[in-house]
């Protein structure tokens, strides 16, 4: 992918959750000269505030966006099942090999990318960008490089736009502090981002996502603007 000047009509689909990672990706995409078309997902998650924050961030960046709403009646995750508590782990235990955390939503990224691929075909976008990360993450199987490699093979096998639609995860091998450092350079409005898995009006500070975010800002010796 070129890092040169902006190119007219260079379109990209951005999967935007309203969190720190995906918001950084949106501003990265703009800096690379793409015209972003954001997809925001409402899938019954407890942390619905991320949806409103994603819309604010998309508007602020001047990007088009659509909110896609779908329902998973079988739930399968503490993120969408009100009967299940959001877990809290020690920072040293987050993402370690073992059983999947209860916050994993089965096939969520596969569903998201399917919508992204549909939009990319429709608007003839060159790429679909996702803020997945395989270092400071909760250990989800659909956030690993081999998962996105499999998606790339699928697109090529389908011959969509001659197999030229790319799946891009620019943060895949970055730590949370490296992501934040990049975002600060890109002037990402981190004060608007929402990372907490809990469904409250304020961040809980205890879920894995809150702890990873705090770790990132702490390593940079920076205050989190969302908590000021």
Tell me the name of the CATH homologous superfamily: HUPs
Overall number of structural domains: 1
Please tally the helical runs, counting DSSP H or I stretches of 4 or more residues: 6
Oligomer: single chain
> Strand percentage, roughly?
5-15%
Structural notes for this entry:
With 228 residues, the chain is of the alpha/beta class. It has a single domain, classed as Rossmann fold, CATH 3.40.50.620. The chain is built from 6 helices and 5 strands, in the order βαβαβαβαβαα. It has helices at residues 20-31, 49-61, 108-123, 145-158, 176-185, 208-219, and strands spanning 11-15, 35-42, 64-69, 127-129, 166-168. The chain has a 5-stranded parallel sheet with strand order 3-2-1-4-5, with helices on both faces. Helix 1 (20-31) packs parallel to helix 2, helix 1 crosses helix 5 (176-185) and helix 5 (176-185) crosses helix 6 (208-219). The longest helix is centred in the middle third of the chain and has 16 residues, at 108-123. It is globular. It starts with 10 loop residues before the first strand and ends in a 9-residue tail after the last helix. Residues 1-7 have low confidence and may be disordered.
């Amino acid at each position: 992918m070129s890092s040169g000047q902006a190119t007219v009509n260079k379109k990209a689909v951005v999967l935007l959750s309203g969190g720190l990672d995906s918001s950084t990706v949106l501003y990265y995409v703009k800096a690379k000269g793409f015209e972003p078309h954001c997809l925001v997902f409402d899938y019954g998650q407890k942390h619905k505030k991320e949806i409103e924050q994603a819309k604010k961030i998309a508007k602020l960046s001047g990007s088009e966006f659509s909110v896609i709403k779908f329902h998973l009646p079988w739930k399968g995750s503490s993120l969408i099942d009100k009967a299940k508590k959001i877990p809290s782990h020690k920072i040293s235990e987050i993402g370690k090999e073992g059983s999947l955390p209860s916050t994993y939503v089965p096939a969520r990224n596969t569903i998201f990318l399917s919508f992204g691929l549909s939009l990319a075909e429709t608007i003839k976008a060159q790429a679909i960008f996702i803020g997945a990360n395989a270092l400071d993450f909760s250990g989800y199987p659909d956030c690993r490089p081999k998962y996105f490699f499999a998606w790339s093979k699928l697109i090529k096998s389908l011959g969509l736009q001659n197999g030229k639609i790319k799946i891009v995860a620019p943060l895949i091998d970055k730590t949370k502090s490296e992501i934040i450092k990049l975002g600060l350079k890109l002037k990402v409005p981190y004060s608007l981002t929402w990372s907490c898995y809990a469904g409250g009006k304020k961040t809980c500070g205890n879920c894995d996502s809150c702890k990873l975010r705090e770790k990132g800002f702490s390593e940079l010796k920076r205050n989190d603007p969302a908590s000021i």
